[in-house]
Amino acid sequence: MDLSKEPRNLDDFYRKYPSFIWGPALVGGGVMAICKALPARLDKLQATPYGWQASALYAVYGGVLSFAVHGWYCTFVDRERQLQTYEKRGTPFSGTMEDRISYREKEQPRVAAIRQLATFATSLVYSVYPFASATTSWLSFVAWTCALAVYWDIHFFIVHKIAHENKHAYKWLHKLHHTYKQPTAFSVTAIHPIESSTSR
Which pTM was predicted? Predict the structure, then answer.
């Protein structure tokens, strides 16, 4: 992927990648249809939709936190301790001149940041998800927290493995993530919304 041709604002991003709009809309519509088909079950659980306000706050806080953490890290952490490592000038290396310039001289990660904002915006789909009230049992809370943590790791491992081993899944879902060679708070979420929903 040629990053110089990638969108540098959200309007252009959504024009180029409309799946970031219609994908979550389809998922949300599916969830709403399932909820309408199971009203008795949802009533029994006392489950209610998460709502637009809560899901919007989730998306905004996620974006703000990512920007704040990344900005703080790049500004205040000693260069030697940062994940973005650069060869000292004059040191033999097998990279390009891009590898030698300092962080301040590098181009802003605007493309990855725009994609990250769009990825967080897909969290608005949670507004239609029904959530039941929290448990009042500490044992139940701890058990479910542990069980869901294990499930998430297994689920993410399987999805990530499929994305790397299936050429179609890699091309359409995961290749974008590997466009960025240096890990940053922005490049981590440079992913397709389908992959985003399976990795949360």
Answer: 0.62
